[in-house]
Amino acid sequence: MLRTPATRRSNFDILAETGSHTKSVGTRGWRAGGGRPTIPGPDENVFSFSPIGRTVMTLRITVPEGADLLAHVWGRMVPGIGPAAAGLSMAVYEHSTLELRTFEAARLRIAAINDCRWCRDFRTERDGERVEDAFPAAVAAWRDAPDALDARALLAAEYAERFALAHTDLDDDFWERAHALFSDAELVELTMCLGSWVAFGRLNRVLGLDTVCALPQHP
User: Fold this and answer.
1) Phi-psi label, residue 47: left if phi above 0, alpha if psi -120 to 50, beta otherwise
2) For the chain, where are the E strands, in sequence order?
């Protein structure tokens, strides 16, 4: 069920549309450049969802005064790797052939496991379409309420969770079910997407990038 990629908006496109706010980070400050936002204002309530027991992270790296956080971390800090990593991160959105609900089911499950605030708030958009507001809750409850998701989105959520938490336990039963619903090419693509989200979502979380580069919560 390969599909032709629709018009996509990248992470950076979405960020650029959320407005710009400036705030200092300890004794170091940074502000938006090139139309990208910095720390949202206090009225935007971006951190109202914080799982009980999770550590509230802060920015763990030094960002020069006036620097664009995303451009600095993903471009200037590690020039031999950062731009290539950013390219992979964006490629999974711009070139995926998976239908939106399957794509988002896998991505949102990884986002929840990584506890990346930006990743949890972000919604992939294709040709003006996003998943419905109730979709993230359905993905989170995939074990208990499987009927809330179609078969491909359900398996994508399961695969994402097992990939992130127990990848060596993916057994023959799982692969039999996966091959009944996805082509080999789709499974490879989905696996590459999962790898990107695990790696870069955790990069955002452990370095604290998601605490200062976040989206306003969806209504």
Assistant:
1) alpha
2) 23-25, 28-30
Q: What value does the mean pLDDT of the chain take?
A: 76
Location of structure tokens 């030094």: 62
The one-letter code for the residue type at 143 is: R
Q: Which residue has the tokens 């955790």?
A: 202
Give me the numbers of helices (H) and strands (E) for the chain, helices first please: 10, 2
What 8-state DSSP symbol labels residue 77?
S
Cβ(194)–Cβ(109) below 8 Å: no
Measured distance between the N- and C-terminal CA atoms of the chain, rounded to whole angstroms: 32
Rg of the chain in Å (alpha carbons): 18
Q: Tell me the per-residue pLDDT of 90-138, one tens digit each, with 9 for 90 and over.
A: 999 999 999 999 999 999 999 999 998 878 888 999 888 999 999 999 9
Angle at 24 between CA 23 and CA 25, to 5 degrees: 120
Distance CA 188, CA 191 (A): 5
User: pLDDT (tens digit, 9 = 90+) per residue, 155-164?
Assistant: 999 999 999 9
Cα(48)–Cα(71) distance, rounded to whole angstroms? 27
Q: What is the three-class DSSP state of 187?
A: helix
